[in-house]
Amino acid sequence: MTQMTSLHEERLDFVFRTIKATGARRVLDLGCGSGSLLYRLLADGQFERVTGLEDSGVSLRQARSVLANYLNETPDRIRLIRGSYAESNPDLVGYEAAAMVETIEHVHPEQLSRVERTVFGEYRPGSLFMTTPNREYNPLFDLAPGEFREEDHKFEWDRIKFQRWARGVADRNGYDVRFGGIGEFVPDVGHPTQTAFFTRRD
């Protein structure tokens, strides 16, 4: 679906610009998939340490292929880790910025509190930029009521639910959060992609 493909590219560029603007040099990509955001980060000299975490072995293999040139660099700036952001990992603590691009909707709802504890309570990045589908926009992609954009999605939030969840996460963990969107804005519906930008208060 070309509409979705161009949105995907627009989203990655938007996330890249947002993270670059924070001035971060050490960035964590949680649910890095096949490495498209990592590739953008590594192509920019601002970023000294980039780590991608991914649960899917298939996606990690694709990422290794996409990032092959960078993986052979000395000193190495990129690290790929197989794992889940619902699990503690001391190596993922202390990053200046993190991204979660179109990944939270793949989490089972009953796992969300665990993800919150791990990402915001333990990893505690200085800032975190999150994107997720806006369910209200789905009819404009010709999706049937209740149909998700991808089969593997466990839920898709409307804007009110997403903002309620994200505000709760921010309040409980000492972050501020502001909301936005990516893609064409449609009145009463919003953007196809909704965003939350968390910034640690301390």
TrEMBL record:
<dbReference type="InterPro" id="IPR029063">
    <property type="entry name" value="SAM-dependent_MTases_sf"/>
</dbReference>
<keyword id="KW-0943">RNA-mediated gene silencing</keyword>
<protein>
    <recommendedName>
        <fullName>Small RNA 2'-O-methyltransferase</fullName>
        <ecNumber>2.1.1.386</ecNumber>
    </recommendedName>
</protein>
<keyword id="KW-0460">Magnesium</keyword>
<dbReference type="GO" id="GO:0008168">
    <property type="term" value="F:methyltransferase activity"/>
</dbReference>
<keyword id="KW-0949">S-adenosyl-L-methionine</keyword>
<keyword id="KW-0489">Methyltransferase</keyword>
<keyword id="KW-0694">RNA-binding</keyword>
<keyword id="KW-0479">Metal-binding</keyword>
<keyword id="KW-0808">Transferase</keyword>
<dbReference type="Pfam" id="PF13649">
    <property type="entry name" value="Methyltransf_25"/>
</dbReference>
<dbReference type="GO" id="GO:0032259">
    <property type="term" value="P:methylation"/>
</dbReference>
<dbReference type="InterPro" id="IPR026610">
    <property type="entry name" value="Hen1"/>
</dbReference>
<feature type="domain" description="Methyltransferase">
    <location>
        <begin position="27"/>
        <end position="120"/>
    </location>
</feature>
<dbReference type="InterPro" id="IPR041698">
    <property type="entry name" value="Methyltransf_25"/>
</dbReference>
<comment type="similarity">
    <text>Belongs to the methyltransferase superfamily. HEN1 family.</text>
</comment>
